[in-house]
Design a protein that fits this description.
Length: 308
């Protein structure tokens, strides 16, 4: 939900988040969810810049409430409070301390154009300092591509739908971040999240910088279609076969709300399967086949919400 830059934003977010908890049959979380999101929204409006948004991600077992703003400055973590009656009555300036007390896990992600401060609401408030926070950056460490070898082949992806590819890349980025946060916060509950994060890292490592450079250039130029040509080692083929199956598994998790992320749209999935299939077939010696799907902008994932 997009929030107005006004005092009513915290109340709007509180009602919206409380309703979602009820729809997820997590009424036990409503009190901490409402209090925590109120503090995060108030903190964002006081100290950050628009646009402001609130969203619910994670899983039904561990729903995560996120407040997005347009500032890249990281939040200042809470400091221990003095243990006296007067201090306990002073809540102004203690927003993040209160969020920590309302959370089983919380933290922030710094992105190129803003930040996301998130928390997973607890069933009841902690009496002391609360949960430790986690901070990470959306720009994952640069992954060194696989070096060229004697078995490298020239791959030609012909007629890529650039707007559709861009929307797919955003969906992938969100899924990647979702699994990364689960592996950081709940590795014992979601061991598969760590395994998938490692698989995604290996998947990304197969693509040379020249591939990414050509895609970015096409986006910058506003092209609707683009042909990209790049070398790739033949041994990468089995990676793409496995990842085709893993992306379908991730979609199934999203549709079943085991993840509260959005699954790929049919158009995104069709483009993704064509791209991965072309990689597998061309590395095995087949001739390139042009993408024949419809061109045009895909439905934006950024504004979509999925609950209940």
């Amino acid at each position: 939900m997009t929030l107005a830059s006004s005092p009513r934003a915290a109340a709007d977010a509180r009602r919206w988040v409380g309703d979602i908890c009820e729809r997820l049959e997590r009424g036990d979380l409503v009190e901490c969810a409402e209090l925590g999101v109120s503090e995060l929204v108030a903190n964002a409006i006081l100290h950050a810049s628009a646009p402001f948004k609130v969203r619910v991600r994670g899983t039904a077992s561990h729903p995560r409430i996120e407040v997005v703003d347009g500032s890249t400055s990281p939040p200042v973590p809470p400091v221990p409070q003095l243990d006296d009656d007067l201090d306990l009555l002073l809540t102004f300036g203690r927003g993040l301390s209160m969020v920590a007390q309302c959370a089983v896990a919380w933290g922030a992600t710094i992105e190129a154009d803003g930040k996301i401060v998130w928390f997973e609401p607890a069933a009841q408030m902690h009496g002391e300092s609360g949960a430790e926070w986690v901070i990470d950056h959306s720009d994952l460490p640069t992954l060194r591509p696989e070096p060229p070898s004697d078995t490298a082949r020239e791959v030609r992806l012909l007629g890529i739908d650039v707007p559709l590819y861009s929307s797919l890349a955003r969906q992938y980025h969100e899924l990647r971040r979702e699994l990364r946060l689960l592996s950081l916060s709940h590795q014992s509950d979601y061991p598969l999240a760590g395994d998938l994060t490692s698989m995604f890292a290996n998947f990304e490592r197969q693509f040379p910088d020249t591939y990414r450079d050509q895609i970015r250039a096409a986006e910058t130029m506003g092209l609707r279609r683009v042909d990209v040509v790049f070398p790739m080692v033949r041994e990468a083929g089995p990676v793409f076969v496995t990842m085709t199956e893993m992306f379908d598994v991730a979609d199934a998790f999203c549709r079943a709300e085991r993840l509260l992320s959005i699954a790929r749209t049919p158009s995104q999935r069709a483009l993704h399967n064509w791209l991965l299939g072309e990689l597998v077939h061309q590395l095995d010696g087949a001739v390139p086949q042009r993408w024949t799907g419809h061109s045009g902008a895909a439905t934006s994932q950024a504004s979509a919400s999925r609950v209940g």
